[in-house]
Amino acid sequence: MDDPLMLARLQFALTAGSHFLFVALTLGLATLVALMQTRATLSGNALHARMTRFWGQLYVINYAVGIVTGLVMEFQFGMNWGGMSSLVGQVFGVPLAMETVVAFFVESTFLGLWIFGWDRLNRWVHLGLIWVVTLTAYLSAYFILVANGWMQRPVGYEMRDGVAHLTDLGALLTNPTAVLAFLHVGFGGLLTAGLFMAGVSGYHLFRRTAEVEFFGRSMRMGLLALVVAVFPVVVFGGMQFQYVQPTKHRSSDEAKAAAADFAARFGPGDYLPPGLASAAEGVMAMVWSLLFLLAIVALVKAAFGGWLVRGRIFHVVVMAAVPLPYVAMLSGWVFREVGRQPWAVYGVLRTEDALSGVGPGLITASFVVFTGLFAVLVAVNAWLLARFARRGPEGARLGAAPPPDEASGASAAALTPTF
């Protein structure tokens, strides 16, 4: 525990990976909930309105805890990565500022209006709110990936007096490593939420719930999201390989030539990434293969209708498969980030130079506090999601009217004169 660089890297890996678990489910669930509410609003169907409340409640739980992890994670930039802020902050900080001002505040404000606007706002206005929330959630993810894409493939800048200055905002915002990653993550979130919805529905159907139609339709919607997203995920993931850093595949001749060039320009050092990056790439590909197989099985099952409701073995399979998208995404993130080492910004700023000038004691304390806090938040989120998912639609309180006794009491109190 006396290596500040390794501790800072490990801390950021654990906290960023934990935060990403929330982001994926939030993006996908926001989309599915918006589609549910659209159908409920257009058709007036009470079942779809109940589905919107139930799945919307799970979305709000995941979003609320995820926001805390995101805010806490940003403290690390100032605490552990002061060198990065000083040298490249004028470029790297631009999309982060745009994410906060343009996307995050709008998303949070409209989500609050959506949560507290049930049965108080016009139904079309209320529907518009959830679509604004959904679109700004994707906009937020896009800006974050613009910042990360610049770390992978720095464009639209120039170095002056050893500091990076932004010269081309358009190049920064259209960087292929950001755009393709955004599409990859977007479909990955839809896949994650679809399988989550199918898994929760499978749990209730396996237990022979009385809400057969409710969870039968939820199961179909979740599996449809899986089928729609599973192929684009790998397509947009594969398209990113044309922009992969040459050192990422460390055994290739191109990687060795690039490492030799870096050694000549920046001095001696190991410019080839750890073998963990290649291992993560293999895990990602293997898990995607399992998800693709599950999507095929889901299509076959859907062709025979009732099997989705009565097939108890299939219910167990979809429940067991819920963690798979998370494993695939985290493996892909490890490949993307660890494969960039030893660079914080590829070819511009080494990770060791991005570190703040702090001692191992402070880094150790930060590591213990941050990772402990994130472990608690992840556990709390999992517990809350499981608790409210098990309750079913009858336990959904999002936008629900108060119980009759409370409502009558409130009405009586309102009519009682006060002196």
Care to give the gist of this entry?
This protein is mostly helical and 419 residues long. The chain contains 15 helices and four strands. The protein has a two-stranded antiparallel ribbon.
How would you sum up this structure, described in words?
By secondary structure, the protein is mainly alpha-helical. It has one domain (4-389). Helices cover 77% and strands 3% of the residues. It has helices at 4-43, 46-80, 82-116, 123-152, 169-173, 176-206, 212-239, 253-266, 276-303, 307-310, 312-321, 324-338, 351-354, 360-391, 404-415, and strands spanning 157-160, 163-166, 343-345, 349-350. Strands 1-2 form a two-stranded antiparallel sheet. Strands 3-4 form a two-stranded antiparallel sheet. A hairpin with a 3-residue loop joins β3 and β4. The longest helix is centred in the first third of the chain and has 40 residues, at 4-43. It is globular, with a radius of gyration of 24 Å. The termini are far apart. The model is unreliable at 403-419 (pLDDT under 50).
Helix/strand structural class: mainly alpha
Report how far the terminal alpha carbons are from each other: 67 Å
Beta-strand segment tally: 4
Assign a percent range to the helix content: over 70%
Beta content comes to: under 5%
